[in-house]
Amino acid sequence: MDIADVAEKSGLPASTLRYYEGKGLIRSTGRHGLRRQFDDDVIDRLALVSLGRQAGFSLDEIADMFSDDGRPRIDRQQLLGKADEIDATIDRLAAMRDNLRHVAACPATDHMACPNFRRLLRAATAGTRSAPPDRRPGPASGPRSVVGGGDSGPVLVGGADAGPHGVDDAGGVGPTHRQMADQES
């Protein structure tokens, strides 16, 4: 199969195929005139490369997943590590989503008057990012998220043990305003 056929079947431009060949991700079997030729299994290999890219692996990491004979040699521990990274990203994004929803629904006339928003600002200026939601069971039922609190430790957002405007006795942040509205209705 020549490079034009591979490009058509894979949806990748010929320049990407040449780049992948240079990185050792695929191998041409020779040339027919000026055109590179590939075995039919190159499509499966390109699918593995695509899957690896979608999972967040670098091209170098993906190249290491193939043995010298071109067969997949996938390190299961590496896959588990990447799955853990994806879980952490999902948790961080979910916490950010929840925080954005809180700020959007906050009944405070000025966001700067909202303790939750102020804590988020402090966490952002400290260079910290939202961390995974607190999933520990206990009296503080309801969704809770952890955001960086700098030197003062993590700041919890959410939970049923919070007082008005979400601040609990321990200095954490309590339920979102949506949760408070749901409790009032």
Output the keywords.
185 residues; 3-stranded antiparallel β-sheet; two-stranded antiparallel sheet; 5 strands; disordered C terminus
Offer a concise description of the structure.
The chain is mainly α and 185 residues long. The protein has helices spanning 3-10, 14-22, 42-54, 59-63, 76-105, 115-125, 177-184, and strands at residues 30-32, 35-37, 130-133, 144-147, 155-158.
Structural overview:
This protein is mainly alpha-helical. The protein is 45% helix and 10% strand. The strands form 2 sheets. It has a 3-stranded antiparallel sheet with strand order 3-4-5. A two-stranded antiparallel sheet has the order 1-2. The longest helix is centred in the middle third of the chain and has 30 residues. It is elongated, with a radius of gyration of 25 Å.
Strand order of the largest sheet: 3-4-5
Shape: elongated
Nearest-integer average pLDDT: 75
Q: Note poorly predicted spans.
A: 129-185
List the helices and strands and how they pair.
Layout: H1 3-10, H2 14-22, E1 30-32, E2 35-37, H3 42-54, H4 59-63, H5 76-105, H6 115-125, E3 130-133, E4 144-147, E5 155-158, H7 177-184
Antiparallel strand pairs: 1-2, 3-4, 4-5
